Description:
Elements: H1 3-8, E1 11-16, H2 25-29, E2 35-39, E3 42-43, H3 45-57, H4 61-64, E4 70-73, E5 75-77, E6 80-81, E7 83-84, H5 94-97, H6 102-118, E8 123-124, H7 154-170, E9 174-175, E10 177-180, E11 198-199, H8 210-217, E12 222-225, E13 229-230, H9 243-253, E14 259-262, H10 275-285, E15 290-292, H11 298-311, H12 313-332
Parallel strand pairs: 1-2, 1-15, 2-4, 3-7, 4-8, 8-9, 10-12, 11-13, 12-14
Antiparallel strand pairs: 5-6
Amino acid sequence: MSADQRLGQLVMVGLDTGAAPGSLDSAVTREHVGNVIYLGGWEGAQRVTSTSEHLQGLVSDDATGGVGLLVAADQEGGEVRQLRGAGFTAPPSATEQAQMSHSALTRAAAGWARELRAAGVNVNLAPVADTVPASLGTANGPIGQYHREYGSDPETVSAAVQAVVTGMLDGGVEPTVKHFPGLGRIRSNTDVSATGITDDTTTAHDPYLQPFADGIRAGARIVMVGSALYSRIDPGVPAMFSSRVVTDILRGDLGFDGVVITDDVAAAAVAATPVQQRAVKVVAAGGDIVLTGDPSAVPELLAALEARSRTDADFAARVDDAVERVLTLKDRMGLLPCSTSGDG
């Protein structure tokens, strides 16, 4: 793979349901982006399937070094599901899923995963491992307001997270445990607000980290890191930009050696950080894939990674590590030209 193709493996770009057909063609073929996420509410499995086939059809030696795409969706259930209509079961909210037995939830998640896989979606950005304390409940803007949490105690959340991770893997889709180290203790939504997003409670050894650890133990190979602030861990630094969060706690304390993906770097929570710095800060902190819902930001994100790699040997080594983690995951998924594992 060329240097540009390797950098492209570190970006995931959003494809909105209202975007023109082929709107991401140049991102894959010319900018070498290796990962796509469906956004905006897609109707019908037939449309999603044909789009997924088109996207994977862009893969070539010149575009991506022959490496297949991660094609992702937010299919949590309840109010948060990007794929709807014929061919997609409507999963209940996480709050409702938590009422199911472990075996029933595992079977259900496997069924949802099979529908995703049939539509060409190989990554689900779920389950949510955030614990929302009962004292906050629906006043928690990002999670509780939408019933995205499995419970108000880490034990309940852990049990459901493990079931969903196991079921997704059984159904042939990579789950993503999110939003490390937890969005359950803040009031505002990081997607739309830069205030009210500081967690003054969570520590590096907090019980609320247990659902993430258990999701990883159940086999999750992707963890999403959020953009909230944690005053008792790394004050003033969004989690996705924090080496304390990503490298020391997630990779060090929890022993996670898989792929770390960000929440949307186009979110309001990190809007004060110039676009060209966002990808660099993510990789410097130990992250691997920079997710952006804004396709227009892709050239700037990639250019910044290339420029920093050229002038900073330590950063270039971090890039190499990140690329290798992404390619290791894709090899397990059967997305490398010479993959001997995975099932396609």
